[in-house]
Automatic annotation (TrEMBL), chains A, B:
Similarity comment text for this entry: Belongs to the chloride channel (TC 2.A.49) family.
Chief location of this protein within or outside the cell: membrane
Name this protein carries in UniProt: Chloride channel protein
Species assigned in the record: Apostasia shenzhenica
Compartments in which it is found: Membrane
Length: 645, 645
């Protein structure tokens, strides 16, 4: 309830795992508040309270969001609102450095959550980032190396037991100790079954989660946010305390070093109302932290510790509790529930195989986790590396790779990955890497609409204010007309934020033909630096007198004179490629024939959204698969492709 | 000698490791013969003979080249010259698919060489590829997963000893068995020293190798290729058989399970002229395969097995033999010598630390390898993962990361990575990711030179033949002029190879105004498919009559109507970004003012080469660091940057 209340009333942006928001940000979508200081604080306290309440949620996603927040705050030079600023941080005050910092922050979060420095880098590379370059790889790697060294130092420091549960497991969280991992051809069928099962369960997990989240959105909109959290919390508690009654007591195995029944924290054998020397296996699964349950499921030589029906019951509970817990208005991660659920059905398959397979049930649990991760999150290399770093068992790698490949392939037949789904559900205008196939039939001019707002190289203040007030555009083409040039030519592109700076500083002059002043003396690059994500200047904050409105501004020194341009007959697919690969915000469209204005339109992210394009050209909806254009378009596409490479 | 002879006389492209060639190919440079069938065969036999001759060369690089060759041959539909073709392979006959295949092939090569499936993917991602997308990650991962499963099956099959040395070590090549890897703050200084040493030794390794290769080029040009190989081979043999005499015999340690002195192959204790129960430690290092020597150096609990001076002697020999062996006209890899040399000085540092450090000398050897790999090849994540997969020791990861970071940072202060150096030395026009700083002062029109060859939409055959014969360009702008259009407009870009297809098929018509014929009936996309890398049509192969020369071709259906364009005033830096990120071959330059021709130039890879740009604008050479432009250019750059993100 605390987690839900602080999230709902202080920082709604802190709800959920935060991974979709970071993914959207790394695609260029700067949603408000997602990296604010308030969100950071709520996220930290929220996830602590949510996880400690035994809600079936993970902590990896929120940890990633936390570290990304910290990185972003560094990137915007601290939080001015809370007086936490630092002067030397101003060098990072631009979009590019901030994005790099957030990327490194995200890597650090995953690296810390799983104690997996390489897995963290690869997770962000594979699942989150939209652009990647080798310099970034190197920086991200540096970040996670520091994480690893610091973690290692803390674990060393905490070895004496000063830090509670932290550091007990050492650097490897779920050590898989089956010494002799030998597998043969006969083990392949169950592994393939696991992969297929992981694909099916993963895609249905995503499907159900999508439906549940839509339902929750309705409920939350009606103001029942806290009630919903209370309900889920009560259901979870009921499952935890009620279901173990269904399992029967089992006698303690003989010849084990562990205490049985265990009274302590992480033991495998919980007493739960059983007679002495007996334990309840379902309670052993429920009454542990998620981490310890995973450790128990992964551990070798415990093939007979669990009853088949207990495992089935736990699997069903874990699967559905994971789904219903995610959508609450509270910080919550998906990773740990997914790993746990996967481990459960993996172990179940191991039990069903019985003596047909030589593999230990603990190894089956690891493969189950891999298959469910592959089925829901559709990661490949990063799952393998994270599991490798979690379990420290390299010999299992070929099997893990196989199972992840199968589960991802199967799941991809049904729907998209969970993060893509969440990004879409949140309504972010996410720019996919590849254009839709039907975009090849359109040219750029087919999607350019609306009247274009153009500024002159030397423009009247009144006009600028009017344009800024009446439109929401963030970039405006600047045109030079006679007498400045012989004929109208495109001078460049100016950003709304820079116009606001000029208006604020009242950089005006009286007539169009005034002498030039040295702008470099009046402005420094700091003036145009990227502001924090919370502070957004608006045109209404700027008050100008009538006399000032009649004056004019020379926009030339502040205009980007090298904007990227495309000709209006350019294929939309290729414009999409240009826009996406170069990470642009504005793309100017210039005319093919010379008799018209020097710029005919401006493309932004929204012009490439499939919904928008299909809205403009509804005939493409049905004709997407029409064979009529097939041969021709193949040949045309072929020629277009040849221009690349 | 066999390796050198077949390389020199059959396929000179098979010399060296092949990694620079693959790197250049993945950057878009299609050098002749590097992926031909001949090269493949010579590479395979050459590396077998070279390694088995005890030359100090590795096999990882050539294995990467081999697999890349196979991938490329698949991509071009087999080898038509040797009648090894397959019809369904024709779908891959385009540059993009071929590049993807070569990438996956390269991953498979490293994965097989080190039995490191994830390391293989990361190595290619970090060091070789110029473009990367998540679909490729997933395909590369699939490839290496298959490699891992097949390797695992072979090792299983060979466990009974049917396959000689193969598979003896299991999936982990150099298992580091030090069970209790515990390290403390006191171990940090030697680790840092190792990192710094690795950086210095690595950069000097690259520097000396560069000089040696330049020297070898002179020698080889004079025809002494085989003589050089013979000399190096004799020097290697002299070192192998002569140097162990300098080491004194050591008594066998007591209480070991291994035979001492060992007569067999891979033992740690070689007899070499010693009395019974004695061994020669230097001979133990020399008279093993490189793999076994590395295994011996990495093995735990052998702290007293080697003498300090033997290790120093072996280090010096290994360092210089590695350098002089690489440049021979024979297949040779760099990886294994680098790992070996690194392991040697790592162990030396361990010995020098003595009791000051709690770390095992075997672990020092691993860290030494990491530092030397980081110092020469400047890889980060991939070194860590490859070493992790080679040694199966996850607990060492934080130290490995630290040492790699330090050695890379130190080495980057002096020179560039070994592969960058080799690519430059071979004269490939490699397009760097980032433009040179001084390019920001230039516009596109500053580098466009020479008369532009333009074709009309409907062009006379004679003109086309003339242009193709007199220029070497690979792409030509196509212009529509009145009466086809109202004013001259840019229609698109046509490739030389497509013009050759049209001329070969004699797709002519008699007059400019003839009726249109359906080109889709006369041509299929197969006709324009990318040819194998060896077969290159030239204009001189096509014979045309005088009558045909007077006819014309309608180029419209074969023209790429959406070429990427930049305005002539575009900053060269931004044009470079566009060209590089989109992987273009041609970039059209259009005029700013409308009064001129619709296209003013065409940019290719060569126009972005620093040598070319500096040749055109020599004043930039000295002025690169001038502070005069500093403030202004900073502000301008700032505005340009803002357009992105």
């Amino acid at each position: 309830m605390i987690a839900s209340a602080i999230t709902a009333y202080i920082a709604p942006a802190a709800a959920g795992s935060g991974i979709p928001e970071v993914k959207a940000y790394l695609n260029g979508i700067d949603a408000p508040e997602i990296f604010s200081f308030k969100t950071l604080v709520v996220k930290i306290f929220g996830i602590i309270t949510a996880v400690s309440s035994s809600l079936h949620v993970g902590k990896a996603g929120p940890m990633l969001h936390t570290t990304a927040c910290i990185a972003s705050l560094l990137g915007q030079g601290g939080s001015r609102k809370y007086r936490l600023t630092c002067k030397w941080l101003r060098y990072f005050k631009n979009d590019k450095d901030r994005q790099d910092l957030v990327t490194c922050g995200a890597c650090a979060g995953i690296a810390a959550a799983f104690r997996a420095p390489i897995g963290g880098v690869l997770f962000v590379l594979e699942s989150l980032s939209s652009w990647w370059r080798s310099a970034l790889l190197w920086r991200a790697f540096f970040t996670t190396a520091v994480v690893a060294v610091v973690l290692r130092a803390f674990i060393d420091f905490c070895r004496s037991g000063k830090c509670g549960l932290f550091g007990k497991g050492g650097l490897i969280m779920f050590e898989v100790t089956a010494d002799n991992v030998s597998y043969h051809l006969v083990d392949l069928p169950p592994v393939i079954v696991l992969g297929v099962l992981g694909g099916i369960l993963g895609s249905s997990h995503n499907f159900i989660l999508d439906k549940i989240l839509r339902l929750y959105t309705h409920v939350n909109e009606k103001g029942y946010r806290l009630l919903l959290a209370a309900c889920v919390s009560i259901i979870t508690s009921c499952c935890l305390f009620g279901l173990p009654w269904l399992a029967s007591c089992r006698p303690c195995p003989t010849g084990i070093t562990e205490a049985c029944p265990s009274i302590g924290r992480s033991g495998n054998f919980k007493k739960f109302q059983c007679a002495p020397d007996h334990y309840n296996d379902l309670a052993s699964l429920f009454f542990n932290t998620n981490d310890d349950t995973i450790r128990n499921l992964y551990s070798a030589g415990t093939d007979s510790a669990f009853n088949k029906y207990s495992i089935i019951l736990f699997f069903v509970t874990s699967y559905f509790l994971g789904i219903v817990s995610y959508g609450l208005v509270a910080p919550s991660g998906l990773f740990v529930p997914v790993i746990l659920t996967g481990a459960t059905y993996g172990r179940l398959i191991g039990m069903l195989m019985g003596s047909h397979s030589t593999l230990d049930h603990g190894l089956f649990a690891v493969l189950g986790s891999a298959s469910f991760l592959g089925g829901t999150m559709r990661m490949t290399v990063s799952v393998c590396v994270i599991l490798l770093e979690l379990t420290n068992n390299l010999l299992l790698l070929p099997l893990v790779m196989l199972v992840v490949l199968i589960s991802k392939t199967v799941a991809d037949c049904f729907n998209s990955s969970i993060y893509d789904m969440l990004v879409k559900l949140k309504g972010f205008p996410f720019l996919q890497r590849y254009a839709q196939p039907y975009m090849g039939q359109l040219t750029v001019s087919d999607v350019v609409t609306g009247p274009l707002q153009i500024l002159n190289g030397v423009e009247k203040v009144g006009n600028i204010v009017h344009i800024l007030k009446t439109t929401g555009h963030n970039g405006f083409p600047v045109i030079d007309e006679p007498p400045i040039s012989d004929c109208p030519i495109l001078y460049g592109l100016i950003l709304r934020s820079h116009l606001l700076v000029l208006l604020k500083k009242k950089f005006f002059r009286h007539s169009i033909s005034s002498d030039e002043v040295n702008v470099f003396e009046q402005f420094s690059s700091d003036d145009f630096a990227k502001r924090g994500s919370v502070i957004r200047d608006t045109i209404n904050d700027i008050l100008l007198t009538d006399e000032e409105m009649e004056m004019s501004i020379d926009l030339h020194p502040f205009t980007n004179t090298s904007p990227y341009t495309v000709v209006e007959t350019m294929s939309l697919t290729k414009a999409h490629t240009l826009f996406r690969e170069l990470g642009l915000r504005h793309l100017l469209v210039i005319p093919k024939s010379h008799s018209r204005a020097p710029v005919v339109g401006i493309l932004t992210r929204h012009d490439f959204m499939p919904e928008y394009v299909l809205g403009l050209h509804p005939f493409l909806v049905g004709g997407r698969n029409k064979l009529l254009h097939f041969r021709k378009s193949t040949l045309i596409k072929f020629f277009s492709d040849l221009c690349r490479f």
